[in-house]
UniProtKB/TrEMBL annotation:
The lineage of its organism: Bacteria, Pseudomonadati, Planctomycetota, Phycisphaerae, Phycisphaerales. PANTHER family: ENDO-1,4-BETA-XYLANASE, PUTATIVE (AFU_ORTHOLOGUE AFUA_2G04480)-RELATED. It comes from Poriferisphaera corsica. GO terms for biological process: xylan catabolic process. SUPFAM superfamilies: Arabinanase/levansucrase/invertase (SSF75005). This is Beta-xylosidase. Coiled coil: none annotated. The gene is xynB.
C-alpha cells in the first residue's frame, strides 16, 4: 500500500516537535534505511521540474515534467538521495489526445491501481480547430513504475485551459482533484477543486451524501499577498494533518527568480483556505551567490516511516535560467501555531505556549 501524506492523518499532540524528529517513530519496512536529507537545501536530481514524490513500502518514487513532448520518466530511491532511473513510465502514442506539453504529473494509489494525472495540450471538440490544455488520467496495474496507460482525456472541462492536477485521497477514501485555471486563458492563474468519482475516472455527481449540492468547481486560492505578485497561484499539493488540510502552492511566474512556495490551511478539502502570514517558506537564496539558486517552486511533500516530513521543489541557477530546473529537497517541520493552527518551517521551532484551536482569520 502506498504511504503518502496524501492519505495521512495524525493526532494534533503528535505535531509537537523536537530538534531531532517531528513525530514519534513508528515501525515500518523502511525504518532502518537512513535518510540523508537535512534542514539545508540539497540537490537531489538534475532536470526534474514539477515534482511528485510518493513512498510505497520502503521505496520512494519521483515523477516530473521530464519530457514535455513525449510523456513522463520516473526515478526510485530508498534513501531520497541515491536515485535509479526507471525510464519512461508513460509515453504518448499516435492515438494519444495530447501531442505536446505533458506537464506536472501526480501519482496516487486507489482500488489496487496507480493513477497518473497530468495535463497536456490537444484539440478541443466543437471549437473549430481550437486547442488547449486539459487534464487526463492514465492507469498502471503493475505498480508505481508503470507502464501507465491513458484512460481518459479530457477528464472534464471548464471551457478554459487547466493544468497542474493534484489528487488528494482523504481518510474515508474520497478523492479530490485540485487544478489550476491557467493564465493562458484567464486573467490570472487560480486554484480550484472538484470531487472525483470512486474510480477516479470522472467527476462525482455531488460532494457527499449529506450535501446534494451540484459538484461544481470550488475556488480555493488566487494571488493576493504582496509576495505573490498579481498573476499566479499554481502547483497545489494537498495533505492532511489531524483535522486540518494543508495546501502547498507556488506564486509568481515559474520563469522568474521570485517563484516561491507558500501554504494555506483549511478545515475541509474544499476550504475555505487561509494563507499563512509566514509565506513564502521556500524562496530564492541570495546567499548562494555569485550564482544563486532561484525560481524555487512547485513543491511536493512526503513523509518517511519515522514521521519526518520532507519538501521537494524545483529550482534553477540564476545564470542558467529555466532551461534546466533541478530537484531540491530538505526537511519540513509542522507544529501547532497560535496564529494559523499549524505552522510549517524548515527548522525545528519551540512549541507556542498559547495554542489556538479556532478557525484562523484570513491572511493576505
Amino acid at each position: 500500500m502506498i504511504s503518502s501524506i496524501r492519505h495521512a492523518s495524525y493526532p494534533l499532540y503528535a505535531l509537537l516537535i523536537t530538534a531531532i524528529s517531528l513525530l514519534t517513530p513508528t515501525t515500518s519496512l523502511a525504518a532502518d534505511i537512513p535518510i540523508n536529507l537535512t534542514d539545508t537545501r540539497q540537490l537531489v536530481l538534475k532536470a526534474l521540474p514539477d515534482p511528485c514524490v510518493i513512498r510505497v513500502a520502503d521505496t520512494y518514487y519521483a515523477y516530473g515534467t521530464t519530457d514535455p513532448g513525449q510523456g513522463f520518466q520516473a526515478y526510485k530511491s530508498q534513501n531520497l538521495t541515491d536515485w535509479q532511473s526507471l525510464g519512461f513510465v508513460f509515453k504518448k502514442t499516435e492515438s494519444s489526445w495530447g501531442q505536446k506539453h505533458y506537464w506536472a504529473p501526480c501519482v496516487v494509489q486507489k482500488n489496487n491501481k496507480f493513477y497518473l494525472f497530468y495535463s497536456t495540450f490537444g484539440p478541443i471538440n466543437g471549437t473549430w480547430g481550437r486547442a488547449g490544455h486539459r487534464i487526463g488520467v492514465a492507469i498502471s496495474e503493475s505498480g508505481p513504475q508503470g507502464p501507465f496507460i491513458e484512460q481518459k482525456i479530457p477528464l472534464f472541462g471548464v471551457g478554459k485551459s487547466i493544468i497542474d492536477a493534484e489528487v488528494f485521497i482523504d481518510n474515508d477514501g474520497s478523492a479530490y482533484l485540485y487544478y489550476v485555471l491557467d493564465i493562458s486563458e484567464n486573467k490570472r492563474s487560480e486554484i480550484f477543486v472538484v470531487k472525483l468519482s470512486d474510480d477516479l475516472l470522472s467527476i462525482a455527481d455531488q460532494w457527499d451524501q449529506d450535501d446534494t449540492t451540484s459538484n461544481e468547481p470550488v475556488w480555493c486560492a488566487e494571488p493576493i499577498g504582496k509576495w505573490e505578485g498579481k498573476q499566479w497561484n499554481e502547483g497545489p499539493n494537498v495533505f492532511r494533518v489531524d483535522k486540518w488540510y494543508i495546501m502547498m502552492y507556488s506564486a509568481n511566474g515559474f520563469f522568474t527568480p521570485d517563484y516561491s512556495v507558500g501554504y494555506a490551511i483549511a478545515p475541509s478539502p474544499r476550504g475555505p483556505w487561509f494563507k499563512s502570514p509566514s509565506n513564502p517558506i521556500i524562496k530564492k537564496d541570495p546567499s548562494s551567490a555569485p550564482n544563486p539558486i532561484v525560481g524555487t517552486g512547485h513543491s511536493d511533500v512526503v513523509q518517511d516511516p519515522t514521521g519526518q516530513y520532507y519538501i521537494f521543489y524545483h529550482a534553477h541557477s540564476q545564470d542558467r535560467g529555466v532551461k534546466r530546473r533541478d530537484l531540491y529537497a530538505q526537511k519540513l517541520y509542522i507544529q501547532p501555531d497560535k496564529d494559523l493552527i499549524l505552522k510549517l518551517t524548515l527548522t525545528p521551532q519551540p512549541a507556542p505556549h498559547n495554542q489556538s484551536t479556532s478557525t484562523p482569520p484570513i491572511k493576505d
